[in-house]
C-alpha cells in the first residue's frame, strides 16, 4: 500500500471521528436540555485546534479542572420566609418558650430554612417586651447539616453559658429547628462535640431535658407561652385613636385580656377578646382598643394577657411597644 493511500485513509478516519464526535455532542445537547454549564464547557474545550501550543493546552486543562470542580446543582434563590423563632420569657418565676414570627431571607430548602431560623434565635431581636435570647450574646452558629430527618447544629463555646439545668435554651433551639418540614430531631454540638468538655465545661450540661438522648426531639413538657401576639408588630406607628390586636392563645375561660399603657405605666384603655376555639385548644383572637392619643408621638405599650378565672390574677402576659400620637 502506497504512502499516499495511507495518508488518505488516515485523514478519512480522522474526519469520520471528528464528525461522530460533533454528532454525539449535538445529540447530547438536544437530549439534555437542562445540562449544567460545566458539561457544556468541557465539550467545547475538548475541540481544540490540532496545532494548539503548550500555553493553550495548559490554559485549557486548568479551565477543565475548574469546570469539573463546580457543583452540579444550582443554588436556590433566597426568598422571604415567615419563620417561627422560639425565644424565652418568664412569668411568676416560670420559664416559657415564647414563639414569634419573623420574616427572614432564606432559600426554601430544609437546611437553609433551619439555618436562617436558628441564626435568628442566636442573634435576632425579640419583638416582645421581656422576651430574651436563649443563649448568651456572642454565641455563633458554626454549622448546620441535615441528613434525613435529623439536623446537626454546631454552636460555638459561648453556648455553654446557657446551661441552666431545665433544658429550656436547647429546647428553644430544637423547637425552632423542627418547625421546618422534614426535620424532627436535632443533634446539638458545641465546637463539634456532643460530649466531653469544651473550655473545661461539660457539653452534656447544656442538653438538659429532652427525649431522644443525643438526638433531641420536641419535649412536650416544656411550657409554651399561652398568649402570642401577631399584631401590632413591635414599634408599629398607630394612626388615629384605635389599635387592633390579634394573635393566638390557649387560655382558661376562652378570653384574652387586652390593655394599653402610656409611658408612665398608667392603663389608658382596657378590654378583652374571645377565642375562636374552645379551651384547651389553640384559637385565634382579635380585639380593638380605643384611646386618646397624646399631642406628640410617644412610645406606648400594648398588652395581651391570660387571667386565672378563680383568682382574677394575671398568669401570663405578652407586650409590645407601639408609637402613638400626632
**What would the average pLDDT be, to the nearest integer?**
80
State the total count of DSSP E strands: 16
The gross shape turns out to be elongated
Give the DSSP E fraction (strand runs of 2 or more residues): 25-35%
C-alpha termini separation: 104 Å
The tally of helices reads: 6
- How would you characterize the largest beta sheet? 5 strands, mixed
What does this structure look like?
- The protein has about 325 residues and is α+β, with helices and mostly antiparallel strands.
- The protein is built from six helices and 16 strands.
- Strands 10-16-15-12-13 form a five-stranded mixed β-sheet, with no helix packed on it.
- Helix 2 runs antiparallel to helix 3.
- The termini are far apart.
Short description:
This protein is 25% helix and 34% strand.
